[in-house]
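Same chain as my last thread, 294 residues:
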Amino acid sequence: RNIFLDPRLGYEFEIDAVAVTIDNIVPDQQVTAFPGMHAVPGLQFIGALRLYPVVGNGAPGTVLEVYGIGGLLLILVLFLELIIEVLTGANDATMPDSALDIFAMLREGTLIGLYKLNFIKLICLLLMVPVMMAIYAVHRRVDKAMASVAQVVFIVGAVTFISSNTALPMLDLSNKYITTTDPAQRAVIESAGEAILSIGDVGSSGALVANILPWIGVFLFSLVIKRGGLMGRYAAVTGMSASALLILFVIMLTFFPLASNPARVISLLSEMLMIVFVTIVTYSLFKIISNIKE
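reply #2:
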């Protein structure tokens, strides 16, 4: 068979056995060309040669399949996020500013309130981890330095964003605020809510790094794709555009809070581009998996 190799990838191979007839050999003598293999005269070994790209540790096909499933789930969640924003108009730009207003918002509609508090973005970032790991695995032999930097920035950003997300803490405080009737206790709960918002709310200067760093990581991974050329230029362009728009969106909400309408347009555009980016990356990933199996 003809085997087509991509010169930009590293390759390893394993030999199960060699298709060769061994004659004039002392019984049970070790075949010196293949240490560990023993044979008897006239015995024919018929086996297979496995040759595959080195894209990860362990069994690359299995590892990438897990990453690919994460990509498919991420596409579904991104579509859900886009549909909710289009139908309801809810996004970070329309979120109330004070803890009391957020408590009221959560009482009126818990799911929409959690959406505005970026709970669905938290899920997206969790699902984006295997996608970014897949990009690293595919490109680690092509551009290891840049891929390593991108991986570190993204992981640190994702952990920072997830740990500072305000959705579940604010929901818990909202429930406590409803159940208590003591004014002093309510004042303590309100103060706790304001403190949480100051370090985790999109638009808060205290949360600027946590809200930007993951998208800087995605931007760097898009540069890795552009330099490596293994997933196509459209993946690189859409990834860089989506992450740049998300960074711009966060900066606008932080320093120009009155520009909510332009920010909403930027948010919608970035979400659509992110869906295209993840779709192309996931498709390319399954294509690589198919080549490995072939």
